[in-house]
Amino acid sequence: MREEIFGPVLPAISYDTLDDALAMANDHQYGLSSVLYTENYRTAMRVANEIEAGELYVNRTSADPYQGFHAGWKHSGLGGDDGKHGRSNSRRRVSSS
Q1: Are 71 and 55 a contacting pair, CB within 8 Å?
Q2: By the 8 A CB rule, do 61 and 33 touch?
Q3: What is the pLDDT along the chain (97 residues), one digit of tens a residue?
Q4: What is the pLDDT of residue 97?
Q5: Cα–Cα nearest to 36, from 23, 28, 18, 27
Q6: Could you tell me the pTM of the whole model?
Q7: Rg of the chain over all Cα atoms, to the nearest angstrom
């Protein structure tokens, strides 16, 4: 899967080891968010440290509203923490006379 998909789609690829799964998950130009289902705490922590995505949801899906803003990696997201909206929250307007 090499394209970024928006919609109610569940892509699935089989893998043999966690190393294989991480290599496949990180081998693309996008990295908006990811979802992991596991019962193993060590697996969750390893994926959290090695996945190249702005967000990782463990044993759940995103609860964010669809219009929510995200911090993606690579070519995903709007350019950082909350994209242009995150930048606007950290600036203030200054007037001079």
Answers
A1: yes
A2: no
A3: 667 677 777 778 899 999 999 999 999 887 778 889 999 999 999 999 999 988 889 999 876 655 555 566 676 665 455 555 555 544 445 455 4
A4: 47
A5: 18
A6: 0.66
A7: 17
**CATH code for the part of the protein at 18-89:** 3.40.309.10
What's CA 28's distance to the chain center, in Å? 13
Please state the domain extents for the chain. 18-89
Q: Is the dihedral of CA 30, 34, 38, 41 positive or negative?
A: positive
- Distance in angstroms (rounded) separating the CA atoms of residues 59 and 53: 16
Residue carrying the six token digits 């019962």: 39
DSSP E strand stretches across 6-97: 30-31, 33-36, 55-58, 73-74
